[in-house]
Amino acid sequence: MTALVVHGTPGSSYTWSTEIALVEKKVPYELVAVSFGAHLVSPHLERHPFAKVPVIEHDGFTLYETQAILRYVDQVFPGEPLQPSDPREAARMNQILGIVDAYFWRAVAPGILFNRLFPEALRGGPPDEEAVQAAIPAVRTSLAQLDGFLGDRAFLASARLTLADIMVAPLVHYLLLTPEAALLEPHPRLRAWHDRVMSRESARTTDKNPFRAS
Questions:
Q1: Is the overall model pTM greater than 0.70, yes or no?
Q2: CATH code for the structural domain at 4-76
Q3: CATH level 3 topology of 87-200
Q4: How far is residue 92's CA from residue 17's CA, in Å, rounded to a whole number?
């Protein structure tokens, strides 16, 4: 069996989620960095025709879309499962994954992170404050929903870590680096959850945070 390869941009929340899952499942892998901009051209377009990251290659099998990748990793490799067996917990996990893709990422990343953390590189100018403000309602709603799902549990969808935690945690982590971190203040349980997930070896050893001050 050949080694699993991840084609992804270091610092991408989706790439980071993939790496966290691989470490949780104790899967050896190689990260092949796709620099920002390189995802738009060949050879990456041959791997992902929609110009996104990550893409994995495993034993002759190529797969893109992070949810599909995470489920594949969990199903193919042994170790602690990352998907609940209880139908309601599994449904909650899937609901949270849908919230990430449909609402949370779109608000946090293009709306806030791209403007707050490296506007010159991505925007070619100062932050777009109107875009930041437009993103805040969806972020606020997402955080409130996630906090409600969490309740008094240790993790978002189950008593154990699931794909829901793995998808959400990198986005919350990056949000906390911006002035909009104040949006977490009404949700101390969610902040404690973030710290719990980020303290895991899988999160610490795969952290390639591109936003740290030099």
A1: yes
A2: 3.40.30.10
A3: Glutathione S-transferase Yfyf (Class Pi); Chain A, domain 2 (1.20.1050)
A4: 18
